[in-house]
Amino acid sequence: MGFFKKRRVRKFAEKAIEQQSDFYVFGSNDFTEAFIDQLIQLGAENKVSLISDIKLNWIEEVKTRINVLYEETKVEYSKRNLYETLGFHNAKKVIILHEDPEIIQNIMSYVTGSEFQVILLAQFAPPFVKYLSGQKPGQIVIVNNIFQIIDELYARMDLPLSRPPVIAIPVPPKLVNSSLLDVKIPKVLILRILREDYKKKLLPIEISPKNTDKLLLYLEDSQESLKNLVDFLAKN
Amino acid sequence: MNNPTLGETMTTTQADTESPPIPVKKRKLGDNLRQAKFNLTAVRADLKYLRRVVYREIKYFIPMTDLIILLSIVLIIVVVLVLILLFVWPIILLIIDSSTDVPKYQKWMIESLTSPEVIRWAASIIGIVTILIRMMIKSPINKYRGKVNARKDVTYIFGSSKPAEQFLFEMVHRYGYEERVSLIADSDLLWIRKLKAFIDVYVVEDMKEFEKPNLYEILGFKNATRIMILTESIELNQNILTNIRQVRPDVEIILLSQYAPNFVFSDLVKDESLFLIEDLDVTVQGLVLSLSLNFDFPQTAEIDIPRTYIGKTGDTMSFDIPKMEVILIRRGDELLSSNEIMLSGDRIIVYYYSNFDMKRTNRIVTELPYKKKKGKKKKVDAVKEAEVIRIQDGFKEDNQLIENESDQKQIFGQEES
Lengths: 236, 417
Prior knowledge:
heterodimer; A: about 240 residues; alpha/beta; Rossmann fold; Alpha-Beta Plaits; six-stranded parallel β-sheet; four-stranded antiparallel β-sheet; 8 helices; B: about 425 residues; 14 helices; 10 strands; about 60% helix; flat
């Protein structure tokens, strides 16, 4: 049986190499369903490989369009063998959407040493992940969905206070050590440079940013601004 | 050209040589005075808030003082009775009969009062009083109800989930809105115990209580402006939602779509006061975005301007208040740089390094809002007058049109006739 199991995983890994999967998604919950659905709508189904811990109808339906592996035994997630067989060739991002902290911990401990980026949800991120993300900034991304949920709650509170559409991004490589005054992104305002040496410090944009700095941006229109920003970052 | 030494080569980078020095403004006496004024305003705002809280606490403690008064009265009566029997009654007896032996009477009285029968009677009276006290002491739920009902416009939050924790932390420690929220938790976690010092909290000990309508009937939610159900159990949310609707059919209820019971999505449910936070959509958007953009949310907030900074620049405010910086000024739809002069009605977007300074500034804004009565009234009056004139003119024009039309009709009528 073990032979067949390994063959099943290997087959999945071979298919992932064949279709050049950029994203490996672990999970089976509502978030996974909605995320996969969104990726299919964006036409990125060829780039996704899903590793699910349970057989569900929605996964059976998308199985024809994306590469799926059912790994229902929880213990398997704690074995190095699974990750070695998966290989994660071509992987650019591994997205972990599990709710079980034990499974998250196991996956994290085997995938964080690699070069690809690991993405998690803040809602299900165990405390050690925050520690790891501090150790490896940029490699581990925690999508702060709690912040966004609270944003929505604030909007319902009728308070004289609101959360502005301000985000922080790492300085694009081409803008390191160059002036930000001439940078123009439609519907996006560059507000400040956020520098974190031993403590956080806001600097005016007249100063040239370092590669460890972040840029504080105001998004005038959430959708259009983000689109323009992604376009700008692709060029820079 | 001088060759740099090894130390210089290692420490001096291109960025350091190219980028201009970071401007540092020196503090003057006027700056310190302005900061002192801001601190005084912050104290005033805090005092105003404290006064209201103390008044509310006193109001709540009035039923408790009833119990103390009752006990004091009982004690005073006992002491007065003993004193009368020991000192006043012998004097009366002495007046009636001069041969009365007062010391002997007092000795007899003391012996009588300390006799087993009297002690038995006293014990039974103490027992009755204890029962009365027990009856008057409130259960935790009644205590919570009494305290929370002393406030108006409360947002009740159910649950002990991460969103609930984060939301309450920010409301209390970052923005200072502790009066507006109250928590009904499903577990007695450490963060909830800490929160008890700031807001009214009731911890439901047995989860089955959430199923019973009794809990909701006792609480009543009469002063609720909205109820946020933020537990992580769909079943629990269903129980809370259906039971609250029995007590308050009209109150605004907010649920996370992730944990919303399926029946709320049914077409049969037509609840106009039920709102779903689409956290599933929001999360997926964040996930999709994270595939192409590495970003996070810095600590920022958009608030009104503190009254002391109207007519000053945002940079002045950043200079005065430590660990907080004005990064943008919003005047209607217009976005202005922080070196612009701020006017009343403007909003500022601030970045904050410390929760304390954010809370202090926001407390000034909420407790001591700037007065815009006169100007606003005049403006409103002017607008109203303009509106009246416009409407009158409109009527005149309409009348003229009607008159013209009737004239035309008359003419046409005449012509037709």
